[in-house]
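**Fold in tokens:**
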Amino acid sequence: LVTMDDPRHEIQLIRSMVLKARTETADSGWFFILTGIISIAALILIGMLEATGRAGLVFPVLIAATVACGAAGYAAVHRSAKRAGARSYLRSVLYAVWLACAIPCVIAMIVLPLLGAYAWRLSPVFSSLFVGVGLFTSGIIFESRPILLCSLAWWAGALGMVFIEGAPRLALMTAMILVGWIVPGFLLQRRY
């Protein structure tokens, strides 16, 4: 019989907390992988639209990809909370960080260009800066130096996109998503 004062109870409690944190970390990995795949699919579709002279359809693709990634994030957070019975502090902090990065990312990528604040070609540059901040902060939260380093792909890519257009820019964005989004997802999965 294990009582509350028994050290074995404390060890069981710590093991339970570690297992919960590992599960939530692995769930975050799936979120990164899924939204990375959605984003790359959107880039491929955008490239095909531009190559066939249908650039006017790029905006609806951006909207659809944004909604799909938002839905994936919502599902990941609520699936994990439902499985655990409640949202943990780790999950709450990650949710707040990514919400705080997602809102200005959407504003930079969609709203400001629509309002004429700057040309559409700059929207991925600005949105990449916010994604880099979210990934860097996640690396700190997960205490993962590799994820911290992956965030550099977003900032370096933002600088690179200023100087290139068309297919090379789409290729750079795909590389940024692979290195700065899908790789961290696999790192989180592998870690736990």
